Amino acid sequence: MLEPDSTEETSTSRVSDEAQRVVESVQQHTLDKVSGEFSRLIYLASLRDHNTGRYHHYGLETQYSGEAVDEGLRCCHAEVFTALLSLSLQEQTQDLLRFFESLKAEKARLVEAWQQLRAYEILPPQNCHPLARELFRKNVEVILEVLRQTDLWELLDDPHRDSDHLP
After folding, report:
1. Does 140 fall in a domain?
2. What is the DSSP string of 128-153?
3. What is d(CA 45, CA 123) in angstroms, rounded to the nearest whole number?
4. H-only helix segments in the chain
5. Is residue 57 part of a domain?
6. pTM of whole model > 0.70?
7. pLDDT digits over 67-100, tens only?
8. What range defines the domain where residue 40 resides?
């Protein structure tokens, strides 16, 4: 029977320790400063190379190994995705609206682009459960359709505000 290579175990442990420091750094220096789960999710998905599935961050890679950065960012991405899916559909809608508002572009154009390009499909973590991926996709499709069909966007924040003045 082969004994595990203690050098390999030490290396794996070192990468895991570094990955945890990456998670803490990203949380403290970046994610805590980004408003909204969609914004965080989009940011983290942008750090993933869509050809290889590996995560890269130049600044972190000057301090930690590429493996640790990949593992840490992968963990952050999964946590943010889970946090977003734990929000109600109304909260997800409000969160996406806040993201759209941060872009300073016409909301109707953003909704149309999101519906046509479907770039949101690359936002879930690579190894998330297929049902979670499908739930996310369906939720975004519903949110976009609601936003496309209504000009009452401001009422989405407070559905009872000005309800006496609706047509």
Report:
1. yes
2. S-HHHHHHHHHHHHHHHHHHHH-S-G
3. 5
4. 6-29, 37-46, 58-61, 66-85, 89-102, 107-117, 130-149
5. yes
6. yes
7. 999 999 999 999 999 999 999 999 999 999 999 9
8. 13-156
